[in-house]
């Protein structure tokens, strides 16, 4: 299934993990600080802000911090694109492959878009905090919030939501095409080895059903798994900050960075429990298919079907 679509699957995925680790180390070591000199964010209005002088008020500091955060995010996106392009170029030179553009390039694009969607989730989460703080202030002190402030917050949410919906629709379209290409690659792989498969009972049906089920699982469960992992990673810094207000966990007692620990424990235990419950399902499905194939073979050898 993987050999039909990816170049040298084991080496490819291992190198992808190693390359991701290297890029993360480089980012936190020094690449994060190169943004002011290398970022192209100024071309689209996300350049690094000029440092504030001494005595700047709270509003100016908040605006500066917001602009700085946006500039760093845009620089991170550029860094990720550059890292993915280098990785893809290396594999293109070392191991040319028929499905290279889909298996390598589009795989990276899908991962990048999912990460971008997760960042939009983080932005929406931050917007909820700001918006409800504003509503609370308006209820506590009448006329403290103007109608223009209220509409500005709604406009902010509308902008984020429109970008999120557009990206989600385009990503679903791309994932569907991606899975279709993967299924095509698997079908071609099995067809090329048909002489080894044609003697197996129901080989053609197995190719059709197995490739279809694998594609469905990857399109649904695979994408959700990646999205869940990236969501956990993206929200850990937020949980780290909020953990200052939560010092104790039921049963465990006082735990440093409690919310982060709870999130990680819940993710590991939840995933482990689901894996333990479902680990026998593939074997049961395989035996069920084998029994059905044996039944069809026995039926065909004992009954004559009139035409």
Overview of the molecule:
The chain has helices at residues 9-29, 35-38, 58-94, 100-140, 147-192, 194-197, 203-242, 258-278, 281-302; strands spanning 248-249, 253-254. A hairpin with a 3-residue loop joins strand 1 and strand 2 (253-254). The two termini are 38 Å apart. Helix 5 packs antiparallel against helix 7 (203-242). It has nine helices and two strands, in the order H-H-H-H-H-H-H-E-E-H-H. A two-stranded antiparallel sheet has the order 1-2. The model has no long low-confidence stretch (mean pLDDT 83). It is elongated. The protein has 307 residues and is mainly alpha-helical.
Summarize the structure.
With 307 residues, this protein is mainly alpha-helical. 77% of the residues lie in helices and 1% in strands.
What keyword list fits this structure?
307 residues, mainly alpha, 9 helices, 2 strands, 77% helix, 1% strand
